[in-house]
């Protein structure tokens, strides 16, 4: 790959992951993996200045400013730190500082994994709280910050203006409690405490912040009008005396050896801390020394952030078992000798499929190296053949389902092996859970534990039975299977509400192989009701947008079973909508042959709603901008897709213009 092409690829990747992390609070890669991408781009831009551009992600800090919250300019630019990844880079930083200031000292702190905020106090009263945003401008989250108990609303000082910088975070304990509640209720789950903390702080309802027990550590004094300090450590002591929770256990060091020892100590204990960290920070302590060292256009020369690699441990594969998923997929699972990894005890890890097991030559009895993908999900990195015992056993996924004993079959063009049975209990539980999920029928409170309880008690055997639960209201309240009266009534109300959903949600909820939300919308935009869909021919299906042979055959196969038609009849009798609410309007094909890309936050329409409208009128929605794109529908914080559209000359429209096109 040519240098220019690699640079452009890195910029696209980094912009995408910036949006996932800063704006959506849903990162897809680890901080370490992200930092490696950014570091590679910085080095390439330095080596090849002819490819440098002003709007490169290396020249920006953080994410966009969200539309819903008031924008606020920062008094002091909130810049990032230079990342380093190994001992040599740490020693090089210390030696460079020492070459200019021989007697310099350093403060080493834990780098809290949360959301940066700036707190402003006038005459001792908290008057504003701002997120980092893009470094020059943030968003006011003042009302939400008032709900965080550890943020003092008044401080004992007569100074006219004080501004401090801190990191809002969620403790591991609070995160686990909330995730347990979310899973039980079928609500949204987050991969990390940082994501949940950031998502909570950006909510428009302060009540949510209060319920989620957010916390803060203050780690820098930005402004103190009327009072000066000699060192950073001195300012932290002063902030602590005012009632702030300052970053804990910081160390003052004089040499590179001491700095590295402090970094190593934090690394050794990081998984035992009650909160998440994403590195260690090394800062020059003396504030006048910082002025001498200065900053580049992007980072200060007086500080670095050390990023720890993912922790890896050796353990033994004691056994391999399979779990049966919603679609009948047999998922092999390594049963491991328990080992403490990244803060929790790990005893299981996914092995994905038979090809994965064979490629890594993982056997029962093997010693293997494991780590947590994204510091969350345990995964087996490799086996260690030299430590293999003589009685190690090769593993093959069974040819019969471990739940219902039906024969298993391998996907024709894939690596997955599935149960061939129609009445497998494991599939039924996961299938009903998916049917009620937010992506499908969106029945709030109908999570996995509720489904399993109702199935084990015999109240539901298939998705149609959900709509007869109201007949057992008193029994459910008496037995407390899904909670007491209020919980039962809320669940029944959510079930009743789901009857009026549009047909695409029902089709999605069926969990047809290879058919997701987008495909379901195409079907319900093209056919008037579920009967038309079930009677559709291959020739009709293959002509639909984005339908290939695989998808068409999956739809035909699902509707060929008698059990499917029995289920549909039961749903009709229960009053569930089986008519397409968009099929009539879709006969107006004004967007036929047009491809839209939606980016940013629209003032009134949700992205799903805009997608549905485009498809109603025969258009297609794509996730990326190309020369074939007809329109880019852009809202605020549009990001890299907008830039790409401008480069390619693709027509850009806003929500008002889109609505005019609909009229």
From TrEMBL:
Keyword NAD set for record: yes
Cofactor: Mg(2+); Mn(2+)
GO cellular component: cytosol
Domain BRCT: 586-663
CDD domains referenced in this protein's UniProt entry, alphabetically: LIGANc
Recorded catalytic activity of this chain's protein: NAD(+) + (deoxyribonucleotide)n-3'-hydroxyl + 5'-phospho-(deoxyribonucleotide)m = (deoxyribonucleotide)n+m + AMP + beta-nicotinamide D-nucleotide
Keywords for this protein: DNA damage, DNA repair, DNA replication, Ligase, Magnesium, Manganese, Metal-binding, NAD, Zinc
EC category: ligase
GO MF assignments: DNA binding; DNA ligase (NAD+) activity; metal ion binding
Family: Belongs to the NAD-dependent DNA ligase family. LigA subfamily.
Purpose: DNA ligase that catalyzes the formation of phosphodiester linkages between 5'-phosphoryl and 3'-hydroxyl groups in double-stranded DNA using NAD as a coenzyme and as the energy source for the reaction. It is essential for DNA replication and repair of damaged DNA.
Protein name, entry field: DNA ligase
Organism: Cohnella lubricantis
């Amino acid at each position: 790959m040519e240098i220019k092409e690699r640079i452009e690829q890195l910029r696209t990747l980094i912009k995408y992951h910036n949006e996932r992390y800063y704006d959506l609070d849903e990162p897809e890669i680890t901080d370490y993996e992200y930092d490696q991408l950014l570091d590679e781009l910085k080095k390439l831009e330095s080596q090849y200045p002819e490819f440098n551009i002003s709007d490169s992600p290396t020249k920006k800090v953080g994410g966009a400013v969200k539309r819903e919250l008031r924008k606020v300019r920062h008094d002091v630019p909130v810049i990032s730190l230079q990342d380093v990844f190994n001992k040599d880079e740490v020693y090089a930083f210390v030696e460079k500082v020492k070459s200019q200031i021989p007697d310099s000292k350093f403060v080493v702190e834990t780098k809290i994994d949360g959301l940066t905020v700036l707190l402003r106090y006038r005459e001792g009263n908290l008057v504003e709280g701002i997120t980092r945003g893009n470094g020059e401008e943030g968003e006011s989250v003042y009302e939400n910050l008032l709900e965080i108990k550890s943020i003092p609303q008044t401080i004992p000082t007569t100074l006219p203006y004080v501004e401090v910088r801190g990191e809002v975070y969620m403790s591991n304990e609070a995160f686990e409690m909330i995730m347990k509640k979310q899973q039980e209720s079928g609500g949204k789950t987050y991969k990390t405490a940082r994501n949940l903390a950031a998502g909570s702080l950006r909510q428009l309802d302060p009540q949510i912040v209060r319920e989620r027990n957010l916390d803060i550590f203050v780690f820098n004094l930005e402004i103190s009008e009327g009072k000066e300090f000699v060192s950073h450590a001195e300012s932290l002591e002063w902030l602590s005396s005012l009632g702030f929770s300052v970053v804990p256990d910081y160390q003052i060091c004089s040499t590179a050896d001491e700095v590295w020892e402090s970094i190593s100590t934090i690394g050794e204990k990081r998984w035992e801390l009650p909160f998440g960290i994403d590195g260690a920070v090394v800062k020059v302590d003396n504030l006048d020394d910082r002025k001498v060292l200065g900053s580049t256009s992007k980072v200060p020369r007086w500080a670095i952030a050390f990023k720890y690699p993912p922790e890896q441990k050796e353990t033994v594969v004691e056994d391999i078992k399979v779990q049966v998923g919603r679609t009948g997929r047999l998922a092999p699972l390594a049963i491991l000798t328990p080992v403490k990894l990244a803060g929790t005890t790990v005893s299981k890890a996914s092995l994905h499929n038979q090809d994965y097991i064979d490629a890594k030559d993982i056997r029962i009895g093997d010693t293997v190296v494991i780590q947590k993908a994204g510091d969350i999900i345990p995964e087996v990195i490799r086996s260690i053949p030299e430590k293999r015992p003589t009685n190690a056993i090769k593993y093959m996924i069974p040819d019969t389902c471990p739940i219902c004993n039906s024969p298993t079959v391998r996907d024709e063009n894939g690596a997955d092996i599935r149960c061939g049975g129609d009445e497998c209990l494991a599939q039924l539980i996961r299938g009903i859970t998916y049917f009620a999920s937010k992506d499908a029928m969106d029945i709030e409170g109908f999570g996995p534990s509720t489904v399993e309880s109702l199935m084990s008690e015999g109240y539901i055997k298939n998705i149609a039975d959900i709509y007869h639960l109201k007949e057992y209201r008193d029994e459910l309240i008496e037995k407390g299977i899904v909670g007491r009266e209020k919980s039962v009534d809320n669940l029944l109300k959510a079930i009743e509400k789901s009857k009026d959903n549009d047909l695409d949600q029902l089709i999605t909820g069926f969990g047809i192989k290879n058919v997701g939300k987008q495909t379901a919308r195409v079907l319900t935009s093209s056919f008037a009701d579920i009967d038309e869909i079930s009677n559709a021919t291959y020739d009709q299906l293959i002509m639909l947008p984005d339908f290939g042979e695989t998808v068409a055959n999956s739809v035909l196969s699902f509707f060929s079973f008698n059990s499917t038609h029995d289920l549909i009849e039961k749903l009709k009798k229960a009053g569930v909508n089986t008519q397409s609410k968009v099929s009539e309007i879709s006969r107006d094909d004004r967007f036929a042959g047009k491809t839209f890309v939606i980016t940013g936050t629209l003032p009134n329409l949700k992205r799903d709603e805009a997608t549905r409208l485009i498809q109603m009128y025969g258009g297609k929605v794509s996730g990326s901008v190309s020369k074939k794109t007809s329109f880019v529908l852009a809202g605020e914080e549009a990001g890299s897709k907008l830039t790409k559209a401008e480069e390619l000359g693709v027509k850009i429209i806003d929500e008002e213009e889109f609505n005019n096109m609909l009229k």
